[in-house]
Amino acid sequence: MPIRVVQWTTGNVGRRSVRAIVANPQLELVGCYAWSDDKVGRDAGALAGIEDVGVLATNDVDALLALQPDCVVPNPCGNRWTSSSGSSRAAPTSSPRRRSSARRSR
For residues 98 and 101, what is the distance between their CA atoms, to the nearest angstrom? Predict the structure, then answer.
């Protein structure tokens, strides 16, 4: 069973992410967030410069969350995610996990 993925934005990096997701048989693109209104309703494949993939870009955060994806690939410009209702959510950040033995006090 493929991993269900939502791509967050289709800018410079996001377009490459869409292409990589679509090309990987272990992944299934189920949703795509579009920041700009001119991208809403367009096929994510077309936005990424490939053939249509049957996934229309949306700016409806709640609709994307309702898809219950296994993961979201965040490539937002800046550090804020904003829903179509205007509410903002901080973009997720992560730091690499360190092995417990990586740092030891002396």
Answer: 8
Q: For residue 89, is it within any domain?
A: no
CATH code: domain of residue 62: 3.40.50.720
CA 106/CA 101 separation, integer angstroms = 12
Which pLDDT score is estimated for 78?
A: 61
**What distance in Å separates the CA atoms of residue 84 and residue 62, rounded to the nearest whole number?**
9
Cα distance between residue 33 and residue 12, in whole Å? 14
Blockwise average pLDDT, block size 10, the chain, 106 residues:
95 94 97 94 97 97 95 77 50 40 41
Structure-token pair, residue 17: 């992410």
Contacts of residue 7, Cβ cutoff 8 Å, sequence gap at least 6: 14, 17, 18, 21, 29, 31, 32, 33, 44, 72, 73, 75
